[in-house]
Design goal:
heterodimer, A: 367 residues, alpha/beta, FAD/NAD(P)-binding domain, Enolase-like, domain 1, 3 domains, five-stranded parallel β-sheet, 22 strands, B: 106 residues, mainly beta, Rieske Iron-sulfur Protein, six-stranded antiparallel β-sheet, three-stranded antiparallel β-sheet, 1 helix, 4% helix, binds flavin-adenine dinucleotide
């Protein structure tokens, strides 16, 4: 059986290797990544920043047990059937690009930190000593997560955000999260720019979004347009080359940069390589831990004109199109999201009155 | 290894997890699950992080962690999907004369 080379070994790249072995793929699998092993990223802003937590996606023996070769290096070039690092050339029938994203930053007269890798987190941990004055800029999930951790480390935190963070992800529950944040730290409702007087801050953390890490594809025949452009099966325009996770963008769709997309896109590529029928795509699932809340969302939770918003208590919302569930968001109600995932993937018709009634166990609506 | 009486069978609702704390298990907390197929016990803590499998979603002989959705086989603890990659330790549990008896394997 022909081999697979994967450039980038975080959740997306690692999931391809794990998924292929699970599916019985017996050819050689090589992962190229500059890190020493496969590392997960979401804990960097939360558990890792304030304490200690295992970031490895698998114990080291996993790689020998599953006959997956880890090459600690950076891939610099690729084309049909090959990938090169500065010193080595690898050949394979299938090439998967999973190089992720790199944070955008801000040019200011202050030290500006970003967070993507373990080294960034270690540097931040050093910088966030008690009493330090930190400005955090950003309007997504990361800024409130960082604010939570920075506060826990004893820093004086100010968040600059141009909008209610992650409103498109958590819908109206984003307002609740925002209210919690404003109770806990100083929040300034505008974009942080060079015009801002930053005298009172010791450092700035930019959590202002990411750019797809397409360096490896520069100069290749691959189409790049806000990410490596792929079809719905994550195939690029070059035969045998796939791009998944944060680095890719499905043609005519917005780019997705969330953990579950890395996992789901990897699963899709495994089916293509194995020649098996893919399961129906699962709706996008995102979570965020901030200021003591576990926020999760599945699907789309901002209703469009013909759709309807259904509330179940203060911390759960659903969006329905007739009897069809389009999405759900929940604060500290994890089973709601587990249930909503099943209702959506199994296409179960739901009654809005039942969804809205907290006395009806959600599990009953999944059958 | 001691066998501990952890309650009557009807105190363990079908398709749900029940948390058994360390004061009872004498080691780590254990999650006990009763389904139509049988009764099962795993370490309560998800092998991916500090989340409680007893609060997870039980279905088709598996439990899905409520936090990041890793699933584990109830019968043998085998992890079925990321982010967890390590199997959940299992324990012996049985129903004898309507009582649920747990033998932790620490
Ligand atoms: C601090 C932080 C918190 C987050 N929190 C959440 C959250 O709460 N919920 C959520 O859903 N998502 C969260 N995310 C987003 C999530 O982590 C990403 O969507 C996910 O990591 C994307 O996975 P990926 O494998 O595509 O890319 P990445 O995780 O970026 O991994 C890319 C890998 O490729 C390697 N690489 C890069 N260039 C090369 C090269 N040229 N050759 C070889 N290897 C290369 C890198 O070293 C890296 O290991 C968070 C991200 C961060 C940084």
């Amino acid at each position: 059986m022909s081999g697979v080379i994967i450039a980038g070994g975080s959740v997306a790249g690692f999931s391809v290797a794990a998924g292929l072995r699970d599916a019985g793929f017996s050819g050689p699998i090589t992962i190229i990544d500059p890190h020493h092993t496969a590392l997960d990223r979401p804990p960097l802003s939360t558990e890792y920043l304030v304490g200690d937590v295992e970031l490895a996606l698998a114990p080291t023996e996993w790689f020998s047990d599953h006959d997956v070769t880890w090459v600690q290096d950076t891939a610099v070039r690729l084309g049909q059937g090959f990938v090169e690092t500065a010193t080595q050339r690898f050949a394979a029938d299938h090439i998967v690009i999973a190089t992720g994203a790199v944070p955008k930053t801000l040019q200011l007269d202050k030290p500006v930190y970003t967070l993507r890798n373990i080294a960034d987190a270690d540097a931040l941990r050093q910088a966030l000593s008690p009493g330090v004055n930190v400005a955090i800029a950003g309007g997504g999930l990361l800024a409130p997560e960082l604010a939570t951790s920075a506060k826990a480390l004893g820093a004086n935190v100010t968040v600059f955000t141009p909008q209610v963070p992650a409103a498109e992800i958590f819908g109206e529950l984003a307002e609740t999260l925002y209210a919690t944040m404003t109770e806990q730290v100083e929040v300034i409702e505008r974009r942080l720019t060079v015009e801002e007087n930053l005298d009172r801050f010791d450092l700035v953390i930019a959590a202002v979004g990411v750019e797809p890490n397409v360096a490896i594809a520069q100069g290749s025949k691959l189409t790049i347009d806000d990410g490596i452009v792929v079809d719905e099966a994550y195939r690029t325009n070059v035969e045998g080359i796939y791009a998944i996770g944060d680095v890719c963008r499905i043609r005519n769709q917005p780019r997705q940069d969330h953990w579950d997309h890395g996992r789901a896109s990897a699963a899709r590529v495994v089916h293509t390589i194995m020649g098996t029928e893919p399961a129906a795509p699962t709706p996008a699932w995102v979570w965020s831990d901030q200021f003591g809340h576990d926020a999760q969302a599945i699907g789309r939770v901002v209703p469009q004109a013909h759709e309807r918003l259904v509330r179940r208590g203060d911390n759960v919302i659903f969006v329905l199109d007739g009897e069809k569930l389009i999405g759900s968001a929940a604060l500290d109600e994890q089973l709601i999201i587990r249930a909503a995932t099943r209702i959506m993937t199994r296409d179960i018709a739901v009654d809005p009155a039942q969804l809205a009634d907290p006395d009806i166990p959600i599990r009953r609506l999944t059958r | 290894m001691t066998r501990i009486d952890i309650g009557a069978e009807e105190d363990f609702p079908l398709e749900e997890g029940v948390y058994i704390g360390h004061e009872k298990t004498g080691g780590e907390p254990i999650a006990v699950f009763r389904t139509d197929e049988g009764i099962y016990a795993l370490n309560d803590r998800c092998t991916h992080g500090n989340y409680s499998l007893s609060e997870g979603w039980v279905e088709d002989g598996t439990v899905e962690c409520p936090k990041h959705a890793s699933s584990f086989c109830l019968a043998n603890g085998k992890v079925l999907n990321l982010p967890a990659t390590e199997d959940a330790p299992t324990h012996t549990v049985e129903v004898v004369d309507g009582r649920v008896l747990l033998t932790p394997q620490f």
